[in-house]
Amino acid sequence: MRSGTYLHNKRILLTGGAGFLGRHVAEKLLACGVKHLIIPRSDQYDLRKTEACRRVMRNIDIVIHLAAKVGGIGFNRAHPAEMFYDNIMMGTQLMHEAAMAKVEKFVAIGTICSYPKFTKVPFREETLWDGYPEETNAPYGLAKKMLLVQSQAYRTQYGFNSIFLLPVNLYGPGDNFDTASSHVIPAIIKKLYEAKMKKKKEVIIWGTGKATREFLYVDDAAEGIVLATEIYNGSEPVNIGAGFEISIRALTQQIARLIGYTGNLRWDTSKPDGQPRRMLDNSKAYRFFKFKAKMKFEEGLKKEIEWYESHYT
User: Fold this and answer.
1) Residues 287-301: pLDDT tens digits?
2) b/e for 224-259, b at 16 or more Cβ within 10 A?
3) How far apart are alpha carbons 155 and 148 in whole angstroms?
4) Are 165 and 110 in contact (CB under 8 A)?
5) What is the 8-class DSSP label of residue 276?
6) Are strands 246-247 and 212-213 parallel, antiparallel or unpaired?
7) Residue span of the structural domain in which 285 resides
């Protein structure tokens, strides 16, 4: 339930506003009446640098920090140092400069990769510190989790109103289909669609297919973030998810059916599965700011596939 006109006259800084999730958050903010939305361009503001974070914070009321270096398992394995450095430097310096500038509110976006590798399903926020993250995602997950530590520390010392949200893997139209850095859904869609177009009899998929994931439609994620920005002011981390779990094998079979690929799916078990299981407990998001995902998974998959088909060359 929307809280009314709280955001209308606020000057909102949206980092990562030109990205996959950021474009949807920007649309939601403008649709609910925001008049002053500032989206910094990466070629003008390198948020890994203190001076850029300080400069971009002038005359800002609210910060929604979406900017991040992200990628799938392969990308994380190949670039662990960059994943740690870029994400921790952007987040830490941006939040610090926001607090020093007495910004009214800071919305930090974390990641499900921050959870321990072996976590009881569904993941509850209280278990966030019960173990080490899955190794391939640990540099990224830990860098993002430090935003929670910083958020709570700055609230304690400075009275800084910062919140920390933990979304699951996102999907939807406009997703990242870059082979080098895409996540699992766009990677599988691209691989199977191209195999269909080229009439390949077999496709090789990473891992065993046994690992499970939860996926949140990008427009639902944007809605949750805007609701939290309007309503939530607590120190506790909050999960944002869709409330279901699906194996990578079942996901691949579902995408193959929707695309119409009828060839053989061969699993390369020499490649890592990543975290064994992922699914969030989303009860706090509903309790604190009435968020509940709306998009049915198969319908969302169809929309992403249709978008990819329309852009395929």
Assistant:
1) 999 999 999 999 999
2) bbbbbbbbbeeeebbbbbbbbbeebbebbeebbebb
3) 11
4) yes
5) S
6) antiparallel
7) 11-171+216-243+276-294
Do 246 and 188 contact (CB within 8 A), yes or no? no
Active centre residues (catalytic)? 140
What is the predicted pLDDT for the residue at 1? 43
Strand partners, 267: 205
- For residue 249 the two structure tokens come to 């094998």
Determine the Cα–Cα distance for residues 16 and 19; give it in Å rounded to an integer: 5
Q: Report the DSSP beta bridge partners of residue 246.
A: 213
Mean pLDDT, residues 178-184? 85
* Residue 167, strand partner residues: 240
The CATH number assigned to the domain holding 76 equals 3.40.50.720
Percent of the chain with pLDDT over 90: 89
CB 54 within 8 A of CB 97: yes
Is residue 311 one of the residues assigned to a domain?
no
Q: Cβ distance 248 to 184 under 8 Å? A: yes
Q: Is residue 140 domain-resident? A: yes
Based on the structure, what is the number of domains in the chain?
Answer: 1
Token look-up 């740690």 returns 84
pLDDT in tens, 241-296: 999 999 999 999 999 999 999 999 999 999 989 889 999 999 999 999 999 999 99
What CA–CA distances, in Å, run from 188 to 92, 123, 248, 254?
Answer: 34, 25, 10, 11
Beta strands in the chain (DSSP E): 11-15, 36-38, 62-65, 105-109, 162-167, 169-171, 202-206, 212-213, 215-217, 238-240, 246-247, 264-268
pLDDT at 212: 96
Overall average pLDDT of the 52-66 stretch: 97
Residue 42's pLDDT band, with cuts at 50, 70 and 90, is confident
